[in-house]
Amino acid sequence: MSVTSHDESQASGKAPARAPGLSAKLLLLTVLFVMLAEVLVFAPSVSNFRKQWLMERLGTAQIASLAAEAAPGGQLPTMLRDELLKNAMVKAISVKRANARVLVIEMDMPAEVDATYDLRNASWVTLIADALMVYVSPKDRVVRVIGEPGLNKDEFIDVVMGEETLKAAMIRYGLDILGLSIIISIITAALLYLSLNWLLVKPMTGLTKNIVRFRERPEDPTRIITPSGRRDEIGTAERELSAMQHELSETLTQKSRLAALGLAVSKISHDLRNMLSSAQLLSDRLRTVKDPTVQRLVPKLIASLDRAIRLCAHTLDFGQAHEAPPRRKRFALAPLVAEVGDSLGLPRPGIDWMVTIDAALEIDADRDQLYRVMSNLCRNAVQALESEGDARGEIAVSGRREGSVTIVEVADTGPGLPEKARSHLFEAFQSVARKGGSGLGLAIAAELVQAHGGQIALVNNEGGATFRVSIPDAVVDLEGMRRRRA
Ligand SMILES: Nc1ncnc2c1ncn2[C@@H]1O[C@H](COP(=O)(O)OP(=O)(O)OP(=O)(O)O)[C@@H](O)[C@H]1O
Ligand SMILES: [Mg+2]
């Protein structure tokens, strides 16, 4: 047997389109996941940033309100008032104590408020939503913010302010975070990529390369992987692969040797059979020699030559990788069995030959192949009876039909099969338990019967052996026939 080497695309059919490698996928996924993590962190931190910013404004507003309260008569000069409002970055401040508005500082032109935010008991969800809204809100919004900066107890401040400054600060903050995220994700991705590359991708690439290289020439033991000695899963994969490659390589070498040997045996058998046939023809002539010693030895000589020729023929039959598929047709079984009997010289002195097959019984099979099956079974029966010395015996062949299956049985009254033959029945060279036998007859018979979709079995071994061959009729492909005719 020769092992042909294929290239990669040949064996796997069409080569798949080249997809990004494992490393590229890893890098992309890492960047993606780090960015996702950053987004998740961004929302709460920007909401926090806004709250802090607004609380600062409220704090400054509270200080301004204190300054206003200290003014004589509670009335602030316009310049000072504007200065205080500008400092606090607000347009109006009102301070409330115990639900009573006690102080209001506002610009001359009170502004119209677009939205009101109460920071006192806003939930974190509201805070996040409000913070994100700032980014998409229309330009120059005026908002009212209520909160407790906590300078004076039980006092809360309510300011009206333009949102633009907050928006600008939040955009700056967002950009800062984005920049930071990019740097962090690049560093994390690079570190992850390098470590995964070192831990996984590189050894995987090594394994893959070895597999491809080994597959090109599996008989070459130098291509077997050398495990790196790692103790993780990759190490296990390497060790298992190495063991598998060793076994495969050995099996292949052994098989090619056996194939070469088989070929040689077939050639020898072929030529040997021809030489033995000539020898047989020559020894046949010895029968005419009157010398009693010659007369005594000739039958033995001819029998040995016969056996040797049969061994060669069987070896050749078995050497064919596959028997030709059966060419089936329906024919009467009885004449075929009669032919087999004739060829074996049955009945012969001491061996009765009983055939109980209805003349009308037909079998659907390859005639030549079935002849070989029957001939092997009957010859075995004859040999079994002969092995018993002078004892008389009988070989009975019967046939019947069960539905679409034809059953033929060959029974003899010989000693039956010894245990040694029964354990490996139908296996070539294994079942031989008879002196001078080659152990191929039953293996060939089984192969031929199986090619017909049938079965062969030893059905009885008490008081002689009985072999049963069942051959089902060929399934007629009516549809196919109709199509062919059309
Ligand atoms: N009818 C039988 N009675 C007793 N033993 C049998 C019978 N048929 C087969 N055997 C045993 O089974 C063994 C295998 O038979 P098989 O026909 O496969 O090989 P063989 O007869 O030894 O050699 P070959 O048929 O190749 O010349 C025989 O050696 C014999 O011991
Ligand atoms: Mg035999």
Descriptive labels:
single chain; 486 residues; alpha+beta; Helix Hairpins; Heat Shock Protein 90; 3 domains; five-stranded mixed β-sheet; rod-shaped; disordered N terminus; binds adenosine-5'-triphosphate; binds magnesium ion
Q: Please report which band the strand proportion falls in: under 5%, 5-15%, 15-25%, 25-35%, 35-45% or over 45%.
A: 15-25%
Task: Give a short account of the largest sheet.
Answer: 5 strands, mixed
Task: Determine the N-to-C terminus distance.
Answer: 43 Å
Number of domains: 3
Quick one: how many beta strands? 12
Task: Explain what the structure shows.
The chain is α+β, with helices and mostly antiparallel strands. The chain folds into 3 domains: 22-183, no CATH class; 227-321, Orthogonal Bundle (Helix Hairpins); 326-480, Heat Shock Protein 90 (2-Layer Sandwich). The chain has 12 helices and 12 strands. The protein has helices at 8-11, 22-70, 78-87, 124-136, 164-216, 233-285, 292-319, 333-343, 367-386, 419-423, 441-451, 478-485, and strands at 92-97, 100-106, 115-118, 142-147, 155-162, 329-332, 351-356, 362-365, 393-402, 405-412, 455-460, 466-472. It has a 5-stranded mixed sheet, with helices on one face. The longest helix has 53 residues, at 164-216. It is rod-shaped. Mean pLDDT is 85; it is low at 1-15. The chain binds adenosine-5'-triphosphate (ATP) and magnesium ion.
